[in-house]
């Protein structure tokens, strides 16, 4: 099925009562059980279900209006770079009738393209703003599926707190959406350690496809992901932080192992990423409960509890601490 057919099918049930503007905020999200591999590249359908935590106030705010003659796309107050504008306009093509153009003003309070999933919050904010502008009145589930078409992980940025994105089984992708998992955990903290804010050379789609096609280790991935997914759900339900941290860190390293075994090899780490990982392992040897996760980029996201906050700041003076639950 094509993206266009998928979108048309979802919009068939939508209302249409256009407003003059639509505005929405969506949080960035960090996967604790990663989405790695597509069973359908056209519809961004994942091989495995994934689980994430949204980053509260860190994310993207987007305002959409109608425009004359051409799309006008702004990123952080300036005309957006060509690559960014083209990706957004291509996505908007799925929703426009001939002669309809949009002005999109989008602002990130996280670095764009640094492996901090700004594309996830970006597409999630855009689709919610469009929903408001066009008066579609779509449900969160439907919006999650439409965000997924822009960027897979965007499906999860429709949710606050913990989110699961069901891989689904249907070829038409109508059962592949994200929903919130019950379980507020106010003591939980995420620490962002930025190693590089530069745009990565290999995007996640290319990385996933190359890994799936060439890495012998990829064969083991779906089973590990399924097991980690269940463990993380159990850890959240039981508020078992050691289990959450261990499972998330192991899941991220297993994902990176599949990439290292791809050909040409894929390594998103910088030397500083490795020395930060080693520092985490070292302090854990002293019984300190600190874990990390990493996406398709060089930055680390630390996982710890409120009681460790002061120690984490001392160990990593540049850390940016986020409270996912307010
Ligand atoms: O949504 P994408 O296509 O940018 O892929 C995201 C992939 C990872 O960040 C590595 C994992 C994840 O689940 O977010």
What do these coordinates show?
The protein is of the alpha+beta class. About 35% of the residues lie in helices and about 25% in strands. Strands 1, 4, 5, 6, 7, 8 and 9 form a 7-stranded mixed beta sheet that branches. It is globular, with a radius of gyration of 19 Å. The N and C termini lie far apart (about 40 Å). The relative contact order is 0.16. The mean pLDDT is about 95. (3R)-3-hydroxy-3-methyl-5-(phosphonooxy)pentanoic acid binds next to helix 3 and helix 5.
- Approximately how much helix is present in the residues? 25-40%
- Overall morphology: globular
Strand content: 15-25%
Terminus-to-terminus distance: 40 Å
Order of helices and strands: HEEEEEEHEHHEEEHHHHEEHE
Main traits of this protein?
326 residues; alpha+beta; 9 helices; binds (3R)-3-hydroxy-3-methyl-5-(phosphonooxy)pentanoic acid
A few lines on this structure:
By secondary structure, the chain is α+β, with helices and mostly antiparallel strands. 37% of the residues lie in helices and 23% in strands.
Present the secondary structure layout.
Blueprint: H1 3-11, E1 21-33, E2 38-40, E3 45-46, E4 50-67, E5 72-75, E6 78-79, H2 82-93, E7 101-108, H3 118-134, H4 140-150, E8 162-165, E9 178-180, E10 188-193, H5 204-214, H6 221-238, H7 241-260, H8 271-285, E11 291-293, E12 300-305, H9 309-315, E13 320-322
Parallel strand pairs: 5-7
Antiparallel strand pairs: 1-4, 2-3, 4-7, 4-8, 5-6, 8-9, 10-12, 10-13, 11-12
Helix pairs in contact: 3-4, 6-7
Bound molecules: (3R)-3-hydroxy-3-methyl-5-(phosphonooxy)pentanoic acid.
């Amino acid at each position: 099925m094509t993206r266009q057919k998928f979108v048309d099918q979802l919009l068939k049930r939508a209302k249409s009562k256009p407003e003059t503007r639509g505005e929405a905020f969506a949080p960035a999200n960090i996967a604790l059980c990663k989405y790695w591999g597509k069973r359908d590249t056209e519809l961004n359908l994942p091989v495995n279900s994934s689980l994430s935590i949204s980053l509260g106030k860190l994310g993207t705010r987007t305002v959409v209006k109608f425009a004359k003659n051409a799309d006008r796309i702004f990123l952080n107050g300036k005309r957006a770079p060509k690559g960014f504008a083209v990706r957004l306009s291509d996505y908007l093509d799925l929703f426009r009738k001939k002669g309809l153009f949009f002005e999109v003003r989008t602002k990130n309070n996280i670095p764009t393209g640094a492996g901090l999933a700004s594309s996830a919050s970006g597409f999630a904010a855009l689709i919610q703003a469009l929903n408001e502008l066009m008066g579609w009145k779509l449900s969160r589930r439907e919006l999650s599926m439409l965000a997924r078409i822009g960027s897979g992980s965007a499906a999860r940025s429709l949710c606050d707190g913990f989110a699961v994105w069901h891989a689904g089984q249907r070829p038409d992708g109508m059962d592949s959406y994200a929903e919130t998992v019950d379980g507020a955990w106010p003591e939980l903290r995420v620490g962002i350690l930025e190693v590089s804010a530069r745009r990565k050379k290999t995007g996640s789609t290319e990385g996933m496809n190359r890994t799936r096609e060439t890495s012998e280790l990829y064969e083991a991935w779906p089973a590990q992901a399924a097991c980690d997914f269940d463990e993380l759900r159990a850890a959240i339900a039981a508020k078992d932080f050691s289990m959450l941290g261990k499972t998330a860190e192991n899941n991220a390293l297993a994902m990176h192992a599949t990439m290292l075994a791809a050909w040409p090899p894929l390594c998103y780490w910088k030397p500083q990423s490795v020395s930060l990982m080693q520092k985490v392992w070292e302090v854990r040897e002293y019984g300190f409960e600190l874990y990390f996760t990493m996406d398709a980029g060089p930055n680390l996201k630390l996982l710890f509890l409120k009681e460790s906050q002061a120690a984490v700041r001392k160990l990593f003076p540049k850390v940016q601490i986020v409270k996912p639950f307010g």
